[in-house]
Write a structure and sequence with these properties.
The structure is a homodimer. Helix content of chain A is 47%, strand content 12%. Chain A is α/β, with parallel strands linked by helices.
Chain lengths: 264, 264
């Protein structure tokens, strides 16, 4: 299970403030906490700063790399921004994310190839986001085709079938779960990943909804997630779910997480 | 989701004591608590009392029926015991359980037919319990064939594909999950159910393991469970999982359970 720590994102008020005040210590604390909690990649996002995204993202990359050897997940929809900051990564990063939108896809794929990155690919075009199972699997298929045609190994591709808030639509989440299972079966070797937090928007007890969806998705084959690994309830659900689906031989990881105090 | 409340089982020390001391109040408190917490059926089991099972089970049925209008799930492996107590049920009960063992199957099926009961059927014969996905689905198929041939509608059949402790085998739980999905797809209209507690035997934080498995099983199609509905963590996971898989239109049940204080 590849865990991408999502906390260093400028859409969070505290992160935006830390960026604006050059508070490297705050950002570094977030990076270290996520690395310690089990993140495999540390996501860095400065997307809220239109026109200054590249500058701020470069700063984030610098300060995070000063305190952790974990690879980064460089998070921007803009190929120019990715191109600008990519050479700074000390360890091969993940790129978050491409879509089927030609400008984004054609702008980023050469960078993915050149740097040998892993890449997250969203099931959306420039004008529409996949809603039904069929749409998700179809777009996943197109992404697989285009990405592998460019020379990226399937093992480097992380498909995100997208989730929507349950509070506005209780039907589409099942489509996401079904799409995960179908994508993992149809393209052996590919990965699926998911940002969770959208799903619980507008509902009480959001952490419960997020962790329950994560378990359900792992039960359908999800093998990566964009999450807050410092959320202990979420992390214990993740570790337990991996054990339940047979991905934790002799319960070693579960027992280790329990002993290490990773449980609520 | 059909919830069978498992607490009135003589394998629990407090229940065995209450039976021996004719403490109807204790049993009735357990029955009412489970009914209030969301059980659809109240399981009654006196299986620990070899030779006196029928007598004690009859008493359990009497005292439980005195305080609740919920149907019972009459729990015994012995067709003679079931036959003895079945006429006492005021509301059509569920029978827990048949297997492919000829004595048990042929002894109980006529009772199921005569009384129009729902019935739980375990994926096991007299000599072996299904372990692999293939074994589970094969035995489920045999159970479907035999039960429907006797005149029982598919909708009255609850197949339990069995779970084993993760602590002794981390492979077979995935088989249970896969079997649930395959059984639900191959026999539209049939139900699947599961007793959970076995799965966490020997592990720390058993409640976490139980509720995580329940969510995973619901994600694969499980539509009934033999659980302790008064376990709030388990119950909130169940309600949330049903919402996540699209079985709670407009999140009505989730929000109701939250408002009613059914959440931890």
């Amino acid at each position: 299970m590849i865990i991408i720590g999502e906390r260093i994102n400028s859409s969070r008020e505290q992160i935006a403030q830390a960026i604006l005040s050059n508070d490297a210590g705050f950002i570094q604390k977030e990076a270290k906490a996520q690395a310690k909690a089990g993140a495999n990649y540390i996501d860095v996002n400065a997307g809220s700063f239109v026109g200054e995204e590249a500058k701020h993202l470069r700063w984030l990359i610098e300060v995070v790399q000063d305190v952790t050897d974990h690879p980064l997940c460089i998070d921007s929809p803009d190929p120019e921004v990715i191109k600008f900051v990519l050479p700074m990564a000390k360890i091969t990063p993940m790129i978050n994310s491409i879509t089927l939108e030609p400008y984004r896809l054609e702008g980023m794929l050469p960078l993915v190839v050149e740097h040998g990155c892993n890449v997250i690919a969203l099931c959306q075009t420039g004008s529409s986001m996949a809603k039904t199972t069929e749409e998700k699997v179809k777009m996943a298929s197109q992404l697989v085709e285009k990405v592998t045609a460019s020379g990226v190994p399937l093992d480097d591709l992380y498909i995100d079938p997208l989730v929507y808030p349950l509070s506005t639509d209780t039907e589409t989440t099942l489509c996401t779960l079904e799409a995960i299972e179908q994508i993992m079966k149809q393209f052996p070797g590919v990965h699926t990943t998911c940002g969770l937090t959208n799903i619980s928007y507008g509902l009480p007890n959001r952490r419960l909804v997020n962790r329950t969806f994560l378990v359900a998705a792992i039960a359908r084959g999800l093998d990566s997630a964009i999450i807050d690994p410092t959320d202990k309830g979420l992390y214990e659900s993740l570790k337990t779910a991996l054990m339940v689906v047979g991905k934790d031989k002799f319960c070693v990881e579960y027992l280790k997480a329990f002993r290490d105090g990773g449980f609520e």
